[in-house]
């Protein structure tokens, strides 16, 4: 009888641990609503049916190199061209509703020139600030490694944040009423 109870406790424990995966929770936390039916389409269907998620695009990925409709996890590698996206990239939806980087002359020149860091190393003065950290929550003069955790307020930086140098030359997020309100709302303070 004792082994019977142990097996049932084990099975119940495994099921309990699988609840987040079975209910569609992701790295953003379990408090999210269930996905809409149009978000559950098979890959390739959204291109034919038009935009799936009408919200804002976010800069994501471990190195801030991805422009997507939601936060995604990527490998934490660094390439010089990733700095170009932080300095010159505009993450937005195109006419078909797909998120991506706008092809601006500045971005193309940076990518063709081998990356933004090469110009800084050649003595071109201070580089632009970059959005960095595993969750895109840090504004710094160079890329930094952080723990890969997700907090709801990190989405505010992608939506309302402006990463720039202040008057003293330090990189940081520009304090705006929209950013402050979003952080307060997301953190529940």
Figure out the total of helices.
7
Encode the helix/strand succession as letters. Answer: HHEEHEEHHEEHEEH
* Mean pLDDT over the residues: 74
Structural class: alpha+beta
Read across the widest sheet, the strand sequence of neighbours is 1-2
Oligomer: single chain
Rounded to an integer in angstroms, the radius of gyration calculated over CA atoms is 21 Å
What gap, in angstroms, lies between the N and C termini?
50 Å
Helix percentage range: 25-40%
Mass-distribution shape: globular
Largest sheet at a glance? 2 strands, antiparallel
> How much strand content do the residues show?
5-15%
Low-confidence stretches: 27-53, 116-124
Detailed description of the structure:
The protein contains seven helices and eight strands, in the order ααββαββααββαββα. It is α+β, with helices and mostly antiparallel strands and 189 residues long. The strands form four sheets. A two-stranded antiparallel ribbon has the order 1-2. A two-stranded antiparallel sheet has the order 3-4. β1 and β2 form a beta hairpin.
């Amino acid at each position: 009888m004792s082994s019977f109870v142990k097996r049932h406790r084990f099975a119940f424990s495994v099921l309990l641990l699988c609840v987040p995966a079975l209910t569609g929770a992701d790295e953003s936390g379990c408090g999210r609503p269930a996905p809409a039916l149009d978000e559950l389409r098979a890959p390739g269907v959204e291109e034919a049916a038009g935009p799936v998620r009408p919200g804002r695009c976010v800069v994501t990925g471990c190195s801030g190199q991805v422009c997507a409709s939601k936060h995604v996890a990527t490998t934490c590698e660094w390439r010089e061209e990733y700095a170009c996206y932080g300095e010159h990239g505009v993450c937005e939806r195109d006419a078909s509703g797909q998120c991506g980087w706008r092809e601006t002359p500045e971005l193309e020149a940076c990518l063709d020139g081998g990356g933004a860091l090469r110009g800084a190393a050649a003595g071109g003065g201070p580089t632009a600030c970059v959005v960095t950290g595993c969750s895109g929550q840090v504004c710094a003069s160079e890329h930094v490694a952080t723990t890969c955790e997700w907090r709801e307020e990190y989405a505010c930086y992608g939506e309302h944040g402006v990463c720039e140098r202040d008057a003293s030359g330090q990189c940081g997020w520009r304090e705006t009423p929209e950013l402050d309100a979003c952080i307060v709302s997301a953190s529940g303070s």
